[in-house]
Structure formats: structure tokens, C-alpha cells
Amino acid sequence: DGGITQSPKYLFRKEGQNVTLSCEQNLNHDAMYWYRQDPGQGLRLIYYSQIVNDFQKGDIAEGYSVSREKKESFPLTVTSAQKNPTAFYLCASSIYSQVLIDEQFFGPGTRLTVL
Amino acid sequence: QKEVEQNSGPLSVPEGAIASLNCTYSDRVSQSFFWYRQYSGKSPELIMSIYSNGDKEDGRFTAQLNKASQYVSLLIRDSQPSDSATYLCAVNEYSSASKIIFGSGTRLSIRP
Known about the structure:
The complex is a heterodimer.
Chain A: E1 4-7, E2 10-13, E3 19-25, E4 31-37, E5 43-51, E6 54-57, E7 64-66, E8 76-78, E9 87-94, E10 105-106, E11 110-114
Parallel strand pairs in A: 2-11
Antiparallel strand pairs in A: 1-3, 3-8, 4-5, 4-9, 5-6, 7-8, 9-10, 9-11
Chain B: E1 4-5, E2 11-14, E3 19-25, E4 33-38, E5 45-50, E6 54-58, E7 61-66, E8 71-76, E9 85-92, E10 100-102, E11 106-111
Parallel strand pairs in B: 2-11
Antiparallel strand pairs in B: 1-3, 3-8, 4-5, 4-9, 6-7, 7-8, 9-10, 9-11
């Protein structure tokens, strides 16, 4: 089955701790994205990557870091510098086209809670 | 700052009726438009994409795009209780390749 997987489903973080959220896709998509969703709000873009070994900051990148060493994988690290990390984190992927913005498909999400 | 606006709802529609969801956007040169459905506690699921002015139909769903008015809508015919969810409108940011801006969503409730 082709799709996007995220792990873990639930994650608890202590104050001052870094945590890493996993995102893997086997859709052969070039572009991958990380979003954050807070209750009752839309999605806000954290980071995105159009090709391997390259990524760009989104609208709320402060306190987060990413890597894109493989096409299939785009892990997100929530650092201790992110002061309010409790949220629902969503990973997405799409075909990268310079002509049109292609449809993004989402993984099941990781719910992060700060203790 | 590019924006995508939706009425937060809740929009309550009787079972079997047509549900109409609306969205306006600020970037006049946007070219790609999407509707996602999100059940409570779950991730968004793509329902429709539309790129040209006019209507696009897929089963019970019809997306309508009017670029002159910067307006996109989603109609759901023969509404079912399973359609109860939050519907997110998303629009590409033309100046920044690959970026999509999401609205905050409209909560739809189908009453039996």
C-alpha cells in the first residue's frame, strides 16, 4: 500500500527536551511538508522540502528543525526553543511541479503534548 | 500576508439537503484550489481540486471557482450524517512555489 506514515501517534515531551517526529512516504513524491494545527485552527506551515538535501522555512519555523537526507523521509525535530509545542503535527507530500501546485496528501498525524 | 477566509460555522444542514461551503482568498494570481475534509482528531483528506473557472463535479461533490471574484465553493448534494466534519479550503501562494495556505475551516453538521 502506498501512503504516508507518521510516528509516534502520541508523544509526550518534558520541558527542555528535544523530540523528533518521523514522517515516511512511499508515494515517490518529491515534495514533503510539515504543518502544525492548533485546536479550532487551520494548518500552519513549519518547513517544506522540494528535493533531497534542500528545505525551506515556512511561516512558523522558529524552534523547529528538519532534514531531508532521503526522498522518502522528512523528520521534524521540536527543540526546547519552541515554547508552546503542544499541537497536532501533520506531514504531507506531493509531486513537485513548477507549473501547478499539486495536491498534498497527509499522514495520520502526531499529537504532541508538553508535560 | 496572503489569506484564505472561511466561515467557521457550525453549518447545520438536514440530511438529504445540499450543503454549501464558501471560501474567499486574497491572492489574485492563485491558480490551484483544494477542498479537504477533516474528521475530529484525524488528518485532512483531499476531496476536490480545481484549477479552472467554473464547476467540477465528482460524485455528490461539486467545486465551483470564480477567479474574478476570488471565490471558491464546495457543494455537497444529498448530505449524509457521515459528511459531518470540518471542511478546509486551501489555495496556493503563487509567489512561493509549492506553498498552500489553508483556511481555518467550516464545521458542517448534518442533522438526521
